[in-house]
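Project standup — Tuesday

K.O.: blocked on the structure for the chain from last sprint. Re-posting the sequence here as requested.
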Amino acid sequence: MKKAMLSPWHTICLITVAGVLAACEPAAPPMPKAEPAPAPSAKPADAAADAVHGLGADAALVAESAQNAQALPSHAQPSTDASPLGALKTYVGTYPSDSNVSFLEQGVLADRLKTMLGKEYPTLLANLRTVGPLTDDAGRWFITGNRPHEGGTEAAAVVVDAAQNAVRVWMLHEGKVSEFVDPMNASIPWPKDVQTMVDNQKSMSTGKG
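H.V.: unblocked you, prediction finished:
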């Protein structure tokens, strides 16, 4: 049996068709390129630690300063030691007569009283001739007294609030009450013992009236 032979023309046609079919085959999609994973952001604490470590020799100083700042109270109270009246603290528990010169007549308190009372200052001294010691009451220092044998008509009290750099004076003279405060806008409550003395003196003055 004689085999059929392809003519050169038929061979060219077959090759051309095969090329066209190969071109029509869908190409495999390219593999997606993997994106690099983002580096985790530093936590605030880590960032702060890095900042401190970056200071080198100053890191310990910074850490100590931060601890000291946290230890401070949110509402720090003024210190009596920083007040001009703070020097009076050494006289707490003593009488004016315990020193060669009375703290009512010389020194920081005496200067304030002279300015506050003016011409009434000698009356205050006379009304504190019979007097108790300078006493501490919750950070306020006070002294009370009266003129000898004239209780109910001549008496006085002085209260010092060194933290406010303030002084308050109560005086009963010739049966009339006067009060002095420096500075004028200062709020200085009477200590309990002073309030008792004031009430008693008022009662005695009223009884004599």
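K.O.: great, moving the ticket to review. The beta strands are 130-131, 135-137, 140-146, 154-161, 166-173, 176-182. Confidence is low (pLDDT under 50) at residues 71-76.
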